[in-house]
Each structure stands twice: as structure tokens, then as C-alpha cells.
Give the backbone structure.
Amino acid sequence: MNRTKTVYRKDYRAFTHRIESVELDFVLAPESSIVKSTMKVTPLPNAGTADLVLDADSIEFVSVSLNGQSLNEANYELTDKSLTIRNVCDPCTIDIVNRFNAAANTALSGIYMSHGAFMSQCESEGFRRITYWPDRPDVMSRFTVTIHADKETYPVLLSNGNLVDFCDEDDGKHWTRWIDPFNKPSYLFALVAGDFVERSETIKLKNGKESLLQVWTERQNHEKSAHALESLKKAIRWDEERFGLELDLDRFMIVATDDFNFGAMENKGLNIFNSRYVMATPTMATDADYDAIESVVGHEYFHNWTGNRITLRDWFQLTLKEGLTVFRDQEFSMDMAPDESARAVKRIQDVRALRARQFPEDAGPMAHPIRPDSYQEINNFYTMTVYEKGAEVIRMLQTILGKDGFRQGMDEYVRRHDGKAVTCDDFIQAMADANHMDLTQFALWWTQAGTPRVSFETDYDAEARTFTLRATQSTPATPGQNTKRSMWIPITIGLLDKHGNDLALQLKDHDQNDGQTSRTLMLTEESMAWTFTNIDHAPVVSIGRGFSAPVIFDYPYTRDELAFLACHDSDPFNRAEAMHRLALDVLGEMVDQAECGHDPVVPESWLNTFGTLLNNDSLSPAFRATALSIPSESTIGQSRSMINPSTIHLARKKMIATIGQRFDTDLSTQIHKNLTLGTYRPNAVDAGKRMLKNLALEFWLAAGSPKALLAARDQFDHSDNLTDKLAALQCIVNSPSPAKLEVLNMAASQWVHDPLLMNKWFTAQAVALTHPNECPLVERIRTLMSFDVFSLTNPNNVYALVYAFMTRNESEFHREDGSGYRFWEEMVLQLDQVNPHVAARVARALDGWRRYEPMRARMMHNALEKISHEPNLSRAVREIVEKALNNN
């Protein structure tokens, strides 16, 4: 069996040499590109060795010379994975020539072909697939890049930094030369060559300088790039105002491609994007797509400082750039929201995504701190923990320090470390020093894995008019960490009187009553208590307002208290949270009924609360849609001690159908109330109306109403925007109506020439409900994979169909016959031969196998065992599978 090496953070050693600058000269051809690398190298004192070890992967060596003298094999050692040049003891110039095959590069790491164009992706270890280099983030150099290619086929030649020269050549080729004025690590290198058109605008920065902004797309997609350019302009202005960070280049470019492993990549000055985060028109992008484009464009631009100008010492520090930058893009998106309701909806959506995907990660075999201590394949650690939990840790820091204190810390961080490769500890220390605060305990969030649980007890003393809240924290054991220490957890709370009014919060022996109705309590010990005075009656507690920490707030609410908070809490996050928790509690009871062989019943009291919120027009449509969304089957499963997908599916389906039956008229009314008139606009108000209207349509049609089916079909046929059209399509596909095949065929005929639309078409079927007398969905998935518009070499296709089926359709993937698990085996093995990064992501669909009922758990275990015995697994897939099997 192929065993993989484990890399440990404690083993970090600085590189032996400094590479001050590098000139890269490319002659591009799809099957045999040539690159000459000219490096200025200086050995570092006390390095322990004079040998210069350069990384390599899937490239063909041609020659190497030192100070103009060719070296022979006595002077270097060459393997498939490295080139070692012996005894580089003095400053020198090293020239290396090699070839690479972009056309054969299906891993999409390094330089590869996409739709006839050259594209690059170097994070984290892709540059070694281009040329020989110390491919690690702490080696920072000044890059000059010259690109030669056929002018007719590749009229646009791009790289990092500023364009300094270009020229036609006699043989039909042309060249461009780019100089990046800033040192950067190799993972930020980028190269693009192809037939593209630009959407551009020159803007004036706050410092008075001008910068050219360009968004490059294939010619047929030019009209779809306007929103991305507008989003980039917003991001630049926001970073200037919020953090005082300015664009530092003469030009800033974005390029879109359909073939990309990630969402986007922040290469210095030349961001490369998955096309789904650039392209948008009303008929090919949903409201959610418009929001995602703004967010991702912002995220990649914000990396210009938090990631590029200040980069990482090593890959264990990944959350230093990703957690911090996710926090920044979340703040950007909320600041772009037009009102507090829209801000709250964004926050609720972010937290629900965290709970749905990161909390299970913390509870599973891949649990790791936001700064891991070890890895076998670094690409497996581009995780929800590193990104989204990392962002929540940064958010807690802002809560503790305050916005002004956090900004002071950011200013100090930039002042100290601009142009350097640093660690998470450097960031924490800058924050601490700028605010004259000891953050030693808070730093545990970077080193301790798992989701803390905070439980609460209360005591009301009527005679003393005091209310005492006691909080106790605990964190479960995780792989490699059996013992946990107490964390620093900020808990923002409010107290409500019996009429739903916020009470002024005055802590006993603490301060005078300043009228605050929300306070952030700092839980720094295992158990702590706080007493509030002047409380006339036992209050209802609003815990964790705004989701003040990425923990499980385990407060013993009654259903009546949750219903009360759902109707009265002034904190919009907790208001929606109360409805979510109430729905989960009811669904848990319904699942219990189903597991006992009874027909699950939706309680009348819950329906009354649902109806009150549905018809409360004083609340924004977006907020109501968010609060009234029914928890997903995977979310319900997380709340169970043992997961049975069949009974969970039955209970959830019954709840939605009951809503449709009970509120038939109300749902129809909301659909008509929330029609958007006039030209489509992707603004928060109109998007919120569509959100509520389409949720109402889903509930209404789930009850089997013929009128609802007609309404859905009419919406599909006549809507002028993809949001409504796709929502109607999904509703019809989820129904037992024979019309679903006709509608799917109509959509395919309209969308077949647009890859992004066809991916939405795939996903609509991958997540669909099935009904009696219909074949298992996995058979339909196999059929769809045979279509000409689907390819296993395209990550977007795989994520839209295969991955969506495995992770978003619990009842079908986990069918009792095990067909979903056999399909998983096939896909993991096939994808591992094509693109190990994508294969590893798909492999994680079985991470939580131990939590399922015994029959399914056994089948998943057998599938994992079977894969683990494959002799030629990539290290990426092997790490996932072995951790799933070995975690007890």
C-alpha cells in the first residue's frame, strides 16, 4: 500500500537560500511549452547546507547552468520530485530550462488548458509543475515574466504586475513582458494566454493615483462581466475606507475560466476566477449568484493585503490569510446591505452555512484547529474550519476589542509585517500590543479543535429582584486532542420582559445602569456566573445574539419560550434562530414518531407560530423567508444521536406538506404580494420578495395543490429572471407531476449552450425528491453523466451533479440498498485518476459514517475499506479515507 508522509508544523525550517529575483521566459505550446528560469540566488548563513533543493512535479528537465556554465550530473541530482544543485555557496545566477505539457494536465494545478487557453493555478503547490523552484510561501522573490505565443491563437498574454513591454515576432508569434514590483511567493504566480476580451475602467484611488481595472472573459461572455467589474470597484473603495488599504498596482485584472478547482485565486494583480463567480445577467444568474459574485470578487481583492503583501510563513498558517479575509469579505457584504434587516439575513445565512458544514467537520475524522499541526496533503485543509471558523475567530476578536481596537490592531499588523511571510502568532501579537491586552488565552482558538458547548442555568430571586445566569463550557475530544482547556468565549445576551420588551442590563457590583439592552459577557473559565439587578419578573433570555461565538449555545428553552423569542426578540439573528431551533425541536419529535412506526404529526402550536411570522408584513420578506425556511435533512441529522435518513426525510416532507395544506390561502396571498414588477433588479428588496415568494411556492406545491402546480408552471414559462425560473423548475422537479420531464427538457433546450446554466440544470435533478414508482435517483445521475455537456474533467460539472447528489440529497444517496455508496466508490476512483483535488472533496461525503444507523454505517465502512486497499490512491484521497476509518 502507498503510504504518505505526514508534515508537521513543529518541523518548520527556514529555506537555505534567498532568491532575490527570477526572470521567467515562456514559449507556449499546448503539448510542449518551454520555460527558462533565471534566478539570482544568495545562500543564507547558518543554513546547515549549501545544497539548493528545488521542487518539481510532472515537468521535463532540459538543462541547468550556474553563472553561465552548464552543469553536469556530478553537480546536481535529479528526481521526479526535485532538482538538487550541490554546493551553492556564493551569490550566483542559475538558469534552468524545462518543458511541461499543459494539454495533459487534468489536475488543473500548474499551467493547464481550458477551452483552448492557457490558465494557471499555483496555490498551494502548483508552481513546481511549471518549473523547478523552492515551492513554499516563505520564499519571496521579484518576478519578471516574458510570454511568447502564437498571436492568432493567443492574442492576449497576461501575467502578474504591470505590463512593461510587448512586441510582434517574425514567425507569427508575439510576446509581452510583465514586472511585478512586489516580492511574492510562487503560489501567487499567474499566467493566462488565450483569446479574451476585456471590460475595463480606469479609476482614481484615494491617494490620487489612477489604476486600470480589467475583467477578461471569452468573447461570447463579454456582456456578462459588468457586475463583476462593479463589485471590484466597490471592494476597492470599501477597503480604502474601512481599513485604509489601497490598491498598489497600475492595473488590476480578473480572468474567468470554466475549468478551475477553486472558486477563485488571488494571484497578485491577476486574479483567476471560476466563471460562476464572474458571469451574471438576469437570465443566467440568480439573486444568490449576484451576491456571491460581489462577495468573492471582494474576497480575492482583499487578499491583496491580507495574503499577498503580507503572506504566510508556511501552509499551517493558512487561516491567517483565509480566515481573516473571509471575515473581511463578510463585513464588506454586510456593509453593502441597504438596511439592518438585509445585514441580519446575510449573517444568518453565513452562520447556517457554518453549522451545516463546519460543525460536522469539527465533530468528525477531519477535525482540526484553524491552524493545523500536521497534514499529509495540504489541499485537504482548505476547509470550512480554516476559512469559516477562522473568520468567526477573527469576528470574536473584533467583538472583544471593539471595531476601533480591531482597526488599530490591523494597522499595527500591516505596519510591522508588510512584505513579510508571517505566522498566526504574529497577527495575534500585533492585535494584543496595539490594544495593550493579553490575548494568550484567546490564542487557544488557533490551536484547539472542536466546537465548544456552552450550557446554561438560571436563577431568579423575586425578593432581591435579581437574575443570575451561569454558563459552563466544555469541548469534546477530537483526533489527537483528548484534553481540552477552557476557551475565551464572548456571549452576547439580552433579557426580555413578559411583553417582549428589552430590559436594561445592570450587572451586580459592576456598574451603573447605562441603559444597555445587550451585553457581551466574557466566559474565560470552565464555569462563571453573572447577576443582573432591578429585574422585576423572571425574564426570557436571548442567548448568543448575533452568534457572538462559534459554539453550541445549549440553553434549556421551552417551546413556548422559543415561540416567544421568534415573535419578539429585538435581535434579528436570534429571532430567526428561535424559529430555527423550534422547528428542529418539532422535527426531532416527528422523527421519533416515525422511528416508532407512527405517522409524524406537526403540532398545532408550531403551526400557529409559523403563521404569525408568515403573515407579519412588518418584517421584511427576506427575513421572513430566512426565518421560515425548514432545516435541511443534514441539519436535522446533526441534532440526532443516530442518523436514519429515511425517517428524517419522512418527517421533513410531512412538515412541509402540512404547511402547504394549512396555509394554502396565505401562501397564495404571499406569492401575489411579493411579485416584483418592472425590470429585474438584483437588489436586496426585490431579491427578498422573490425569496419569500418562491419559498411560499415550494410549500404550496408540496401539498399537491393543482393551483400551485399551475402557478409554478406559469412562473417557469413567463419569468424574466433565472431566480424565479429556477425556483419554479425545482418545485416542479420535486413534485410527482409528469410535467417535470417536459419542463426539464425545455430548460435543457434553452440552456444547453451555457455551461453555468447546465450546471444548475444538473443540480436541480441531483437534489430532487423521488416518489413511489420512480427509479432510484442514482440511475438518473448515471444517465446525466453520459450527456455530452458533462465531463469528469470539469470540476464545476462534478460539483453540480455528483457532489450535490452525495451531500445535498441525504435520502437518495443513503438509500437502504447501498446503491449510493457503490456510486461513491466508482466516482472516487475515477476522479482520483483525473483530478485528486476533486476526488478528495467527493471522498469526504462519507466523513460522518459512524453517526448513521448500523446497517448504513456498515455499508459506508465497507466502501471506505475497499477504497483504502487500492494500491495507487493519491495522497489526497488516502488521507481522507484513512482518517475516516481510523477515527474512533
Q: What stands out?
A: The first strand starts at residue 7 and ends at 8. The longest helix spans residues 384-417. The radius of gyration is 28 Å. The chain has a mean pLDDT of 98.
